[in-house]
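Changelog note: in this version the structure field was regenerated for every chain. One regenerated record is shown below for reference.
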Amino acid sequence: MTNTGKNSKGSLRILVVDDEDFVRGPLIAALQFIGYQAIGAANVDEALDQLENNTFDMLFCDLVMPGANGFTLMEVARRKWPSMAIVVLTGHGTIDLTQRAMRTGAQDFVIKPFSVRELPIIVERNVERRRLETQLRERQTENLLFQTVQALTAAIEAKDPYTAGHSWKVSYLSIQFANTLELGQTDIFALRLAGMMHDVGKIGIPESVLRKPSRLNEQEWEIMKQHPVIGAEIVGQISDLKFVAKIVRSHHERWDGTGYPEGLKEEQIPFLARILNLSDAFDALTADRAYRKGLSDQQALEIIKQQSGIHFDEEMVTIFENQIFPGLSETWRNPNELTAKLSSTVLESLSVQQKANS
């Protein structure tokens, strides 16, 4: 991908495409004299080869060339390298072509013969404009993705009121694990979203099962056990969240292999799913349900310790008991405070993830 976030002239790479040597050569020389890295291509095929094998911040493109013309090159460039700035090289008599080029995706144009004095102004303003446009586009994508996550979380909480706030609290606890283990940004991002969306599959579970005021019978329990599978399918439909779907699918697997949906055992269970599993269980134990009162934090901790090496990864239990549980604050019990805190950190994670994928 192109990188339009660089500021120094020497770091900016420019490709000049023009079939006329007397135009291409002096333009490259002028750009290099100013301090940019510039190379040339005499036709569209050469240009595409350069673009496929190198990274460029800007494309100077002639419109009229033998064979494929500049419009073809611009259409391919806009589709494959959308963050690269495009400037058209044009003569005085081709204003109509210039207007068409702007509609195709060009940002600016240089009139031949060009002025060396104007080149740095043209380069800097277009690189900066493309950087801002890319930043805005990424922010819009981040907001849209976060709104999707929020909508799915709200949908399940509206269907099952006993889970209201549960997803946010599980996400919060999972992040405490991630910070304690000093996991990377990608893992933190995955745990934040997996925590928020781990129960989204309950959308596909009948309300008679979700809201039953007593314990589920065997048939009802088999229905309930489908929610990780349904959830993974829903999350997996969002292209940016496919890697989160695996965590959602496995968050009810048990260390001893008696969990669901696949009966995975020990190291077969994804590492992040083991974190989510314990976080989910702790909040579930401390929450009120229609058929029972929630346990105290200490009572829940004792049950989790009893299930160490059975339900839970022993390492996760030890970390939770010694490093996370003692530091639990009232924040994770306050839905409004927790939602505000996680909303800002999720958007921050989305931004980091976008940059990591660039």
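Spot check on this record: DSSP finds 15 helices and five strands in the chain. The chain has two domains: 9-133, 160-357.
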